[in-house]
Amino acid sequence: MQWISGTQYFTAAHLDELVGGPGRRTSKRMLEQMQADDRQRREATKATAATSNAPGQEDEGYWSSMQRSVQERTERLNIMGDSMDRLEEASAGWADDVSKFVNDQKKKAVMG
């Protein structure tokens, strides 16, 4: 159906296969990114292990644990809410721009 409209959509994976084929080597940038991700994951694991062995964590009761969990969840929800508000504003602006463009095209079509 895409070829009928004259538009072809493809992903980065399609482009990689087209350019290099299935035997293409991994780029230096991708290798560096994978190494950085591995380092970050190891550091996060070490940090988690260090905080789980902290002396204050052992004495944490049920209610304080519940309070901490609720507070973390609230912070995450607030961040998500802010992101959704920004998305709403951006999509509303985009819709307005599209509407203006369509109206301009209609005027040009009528005026000739």
Brief sketch in words of this structure:
The chain has 112 residues and is mostly helical. Helix content is 82%, strand content 0%. It has helices at residues 2-5, 12-20, 28-52, 55-58, 62-111.
* Distance N to C terminus: 31 Å
Return residue spans where pLDDT drops below 50 for at least 5 consecutive residues: none
Q: How many separate helices?
A: 5
Largest sheet: none
Kindly state the number of beta strands.
0
Rg over C-alpha atoms, rounded to the nearest angstrom: 26 Å
Task: Indicate the percent of residues in helices.
Answer: over 70%
Question: H/E order of the elements?
Answer: HHHHH
What is the approximate shape? flat
Strand content of the residues, in percent?
under 5%
- Quote the average pLDDT: 82
> Which structural class is indicated by helix and strand composition?
mainly alpha
From the structure above, extract its key features.
112 residues; mainly alpha; 82% helix
